[in-house]
Write a structure and sequence with these properties.
The protein has 405 residues and is of the alpha/beta class. It is built from 14 helices and 15 strands. Bound molecules: pyridoxal-5'-phosphate. Pyridoxal-5'-phosphate (PLP) binds next to helix 3 and helix 4.
Length: 405
C-alpha cells in the first residue's frame, strides 16, 4: 500500500536546476543577484510595497521584534499579545528580544479572537502577533482595527499564507509587518527561507542592515568611493539572517506555480469538507468568505479522547496525519500562562491535520475520509464526552480488532 504523508513538496526540478545553474555559472550564490530578483517577483506577485528575502521566517519574526523594539524604544518586559496555537518560532521571537508573550485565546477559525485580544491589552502592550493559521485570515481585519485603536504594532506571522487572498488582495498589507515562510514543507517550499515585508520603506531599508550583521555599505558607495568596498560601517548589533541566491533561484521557479498549486489544495479541501461535514463527530475549522486561503493545512477536530487513537488507526492504514500544534503554554518556558486560553487548549486536544499536498490524488482524499468515517462510526462518541478508563479500554479493544481487519 502506498504511504500517504502529511506533506510532500513538489519541485519543477529541471527549471529549478536551470536557475541554480545561472548562480553557479556566474559564481554568485550569496546575497544580491537572485535574491533581488526574487524580492521583485514577490512584490509583483503580492502587491506589497517592500520585501526582504531571509534565510528563514523564524529570523524574520525575530527581526521584526528587534527592529520595532529598537525603533519604538520598547523596554525589556514590554508585552506582545500572541497565540498559544502556533509553531514555537512565533513566540520564541518575542522572548529573543526579552519581551513578554501574553497569550490570547483563539476563535472558531483557530486564529486570535479579537475579544480575547482586547481583554489582554494593558499599559505595557506594544504589539500583537497574528498567525494566519493554515492560510486562514480569521478576523484579521478586526484585529487590525483594534491595533490602530490602541496604537499597537501588528505583526502578521504569514508562514502559512503564501498566496492567501483577503478581500480581493494578497494578504499582508493589513499589518505593519508580514513575515512569510518558504520552509521545506510550507506551501511555497524552497528548502528554507522567508520574506519580511514591512509596510514602511524606511524599516525595509533598516531591515537590510539588521539582517546582515548591521553592516552599512551604503555610505561609501554613495559617496562615490567605488573601490573602497571594504570600508563599510557597522551600525547595529545585527543578525546573520539574509537569504542567498541558490534558495532564491528555487523560489523564483516555485512562485510561478503557487496559484496553480493552491488551487489544487483548495480542490482537495473542498472534497475533504464534502466527505466529512456530515459526520457529527467531526468539527471543521471555520473559514469566512472574505478569505481565499492558501490552504497550507486541512484540519478537522474530533473528540479529544479519540484523537490519538484515530491517528494510530490511520497510521495502520498507511495514512500519516499531523497535529498543528501542541499548545505552546504546555512548553516549559511558556507554562506561566497555562490555563489562560481555554478554547485553544480544547482545540489543541482535538485537532488533526490531514495529508495535503500535490503528490496525492482525489482517490487518496476519498480513501482517507472513508477510513476516518469508518473509525468514528465504530467508536461513536458525543463531541463533549469524557471517557472513563473502562470505556477507553473498550475503545482500544475495538481498535485492535479494526487493525487486524
Ligand atoms: C514554519 C513556521 C514558522 C517558521 O518558519 P521557518 O521559515 O521554518 O523559520 C513560523 N511560524 C509558523 C506559524 C510556522 O508554521
Amino acid at each position: 500500500m502506498k504511504k500517504i504523508q502529511l506533506f510532500s513538496p513538489v519541485y519543477s526540478v529541471d527549471e529549478c536546476l536551470a536557475e541554480i545553474r545561472k548562480c553557479l555559472e556566474a559564481g554568485w550564490t550569496g546575497l544580491g543577484f537572485k535574491t533581488v530578483e526574487f524580492e521583485e517577483a514577490w512584490k509583483n506577485y503580492t502587491g506589497l510595497p517592500n520585501a526582504h528575502f531571509l534565510n528563514s521566517s523564524t529570523q524574520g519574526l525575530h527581526l521584526a521584534m528587534k527592529i520595532f523594539k529598537y525603533e519604538l524604544n520598547w523596554r525589556e518586559g514590554d508585552e506582545v499579545i500572541t497565540t498559544p496555537l502556533t509553531f514555537v518560532s512565533t513566540n520564541h521571537a518575542i522572548l529573543y528580544e526579552n519581551l513578554k508573550p501574553v497569550f490570547a485565546d483563539v476563535d472558531e477559525t483557530l486564529c486570535l479572537d479579537p475579544q480575547s485580544v482586547r481583554e489582554k491589552i494593558g499599559p505595557k502592550t506594544r504589539a500583537v502577533v497574528f498567525v494566519g493559521f493554515g492560510g486562514n485570515a480569521g478576523k484579521l481585519d478586526e484585529i487590525s482595527r483594534i491595533c490602530k485603536e490602541y496604537n499597537l504594532v501588528l505583526i502578521l506571522d504569514a508562514a502559512h499564507m503564501s498566496g492567501t487572498k483577503y478581500r480581493e488582495r494578497h494578504i499582508g498589507s493589513e499589518a505593519d509587518c508580514a513575515v512569510f515562510s518558504y520552509h521545506a514543507v510550507k506551501n511555497l517550499s524552497i528548502g528554507d527561507g522567508g520574506m519580511i515585508c514591512f509596510k514602511e520603506k524606511a524599516l525595509d531599508e533598516k531591515a537590510r542592515k539588521w539582517s546582515w550583521m548591521g553592516i552599512n555599505n551604503d555610505t561609501f558607495s554613495r559617496a562615490g568611493h567605488g573601490g573602497y568596498k571594504w570600508l563599510y560601517d557597522v551600525e547595529y548589533l545585527g543578525l546573520k539572517a539574509h537569504g542567498n541566491s541558490i534558495m532564491a533561484a528555487i523560489a523564483l521557479v516555485q512562485l510561478k506555480y503557487l496559484d496553480r498549486d493552491n488551487e489544487i489544495r483548495r480542490k482537495y479541501c473542498d472534497l475533504y469538507t464534502r466527505l466529512l461535514e456530515n459526520n457529527l463527530q467531526i468539527k471543521l475549522v471555520k473559514h469566512f468568505d472574505d478569505c481565499v486561503s492558501s490552504r497550507h493545512l486541512f484540519q478537522i477536530r474530533v473528540p479529544a479522547a479519540l484523537r490519538d487513537i484515530l491517528i494510530l488507526f490511520l497510521n495502520a492504514k498507511e495514512i500519516y496525519p499531523g497535529v498543528h500544534y501542541r499548545l505552546n503554554t504546555d512548553y516549559k518556558m511558556y507554562n506561566y500562562a497555562s490555563g489562560t486560553c481555554p478554547r485553544a487548549e480544547e482545540a489543541a486536544k482535538e485537532i488533526i491535520s490531514l495529508p495535503l499536498h500535490l503528490r496525492m490524488t482525489e482517490e487518496d482524499v476519498k480513501y482517507i475520509c472513508k477510513n476516518i468515517n469508518i473509525f468514528l462510526e465504530m467508536i461513536s462518541l458525543p463531541l463533549d464526552s469524557n471517557l472513563t478508563d473502562e470505556e477507553v479500554r473498550n475503545v482500544c479493544q475495538k481498535i485492535i480488532k479494526l487493525l487486524r481487519e
